[in-house]
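Subject: for your reference before the review

Hello V.,

The reviewers asked for a structural picture of the protein, and I figured it would be easier to keep everything in one thread rather than splitting it across files. Below is the amino acid sequence we used in the manuscript, unchanged from the supplementary table.
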Amino acid sequence: MIRRGLIAAVLSLTAVVARADGGRVRLRQDAGPFALTVFTAPEPLTAGPADVSVLVQDRADGRALLDADVEIRLRAPGVESARNYAATAGTNRILKAIATDLPTPGNWRFEVVVRRAGQTATITGVLPVEPPASRLSAIWPFLAAPPLAIVLFALHQARPRRREGDKRGGEK
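And here is what came back from the structure prediction:
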């Protein structure tokens, strides 16, 4: 019973360090002839490197519009001027993406401008950026592994052992 509990605890710890594909949907909004969805990664969004991706769809039928031009404007908290980026095809070919650096925490304002076939649409929103994670929080699973292995080994060695005769049905 204890063994199963320890295995479950170890497996639950590994789920913390597993990395999934994608990020978080920050905004989904219809604008003009388009349905626009904005994604960000990593999750949670912290000060430092970040990806902002946009899915542009035809509002009428939902198909992805791969030929749309997408511009993303980011404005840091307390700053009037925005940084402009031309989004390009991301790793996932149906998304237009940028890789950027968000150096300060706070509520960053974003604006997405989409142009296609003479039509333009704009959406705006907020990206809540948290302070960067401490270095320790990033490496704690690696620091915890050796003591955990020692504890598991000690528990294994401390368990009561059956004598050879006990395993054959009580013969001695």
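For the response letter, the relevant points are probably these. Helices lie at 2-17, 135-158, 164-167. Residues 22-129 form a domain with the Immunoglobulin-like fold (CATH 2.60.40.1930).

Happy to draft the paragraph if you're swamped.

O.
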